[in-house]
Design the sequence.
């Protein structure tokens, strides 16, 4: 068994597609108006499911954090601490909600926004 991809249940599909495609550089596989959208980043499949469409498909209702389009953690790697700051700034300027500004971690990484971007100087 190997990781093939992961999915996120989203409220505003078009907004999420534009952010992941235009800001974070994900490759899109399907049209923006699809109820399930497939994005690819570095060979990993990333699925966006419309919340209402997913509930209809599974015949169930789900609870979501209020005020967030999607919620989860994703780690995107960059090579330098400076690139962490640049990527963080670009994401926030283009609609990301900051959870945690970039900071140096005791284990040698610099991370931000729940590890939205990270660089490693730990030697690992």
Sequence:
């Amino acid at each position: 068994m190997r990781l093939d991809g992961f999915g996120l249940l989203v409220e505003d599909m078009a907004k999420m597609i534009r952010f992941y495609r235009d800001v974070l550089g994900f490759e899109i596989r399907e049209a923006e108006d699809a109820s399930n959208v497939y994005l690819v980043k570095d060979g990993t499949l990333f699925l966006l499911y419309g919340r209402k469409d997913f509930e209809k498909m599974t015949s169930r209702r789900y609870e979501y954090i209020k005020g967030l389009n999607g919620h989860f953690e994703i780690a995107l790697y960059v090579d330098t601490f400076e690139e962490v700051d640049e990527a963080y700034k670009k994401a926030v300027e283009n609609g990301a909600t900051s959870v945690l500004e970039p900071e140096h971690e005791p284990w040698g990484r610099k991370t931000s926004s729940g590890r939205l971007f990270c660089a490693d100087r730990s030697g690992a």
Remarks:
- The chain has two domains: 5-58, 76-120.
- The first strand starts at residue 5 and ends at 10.
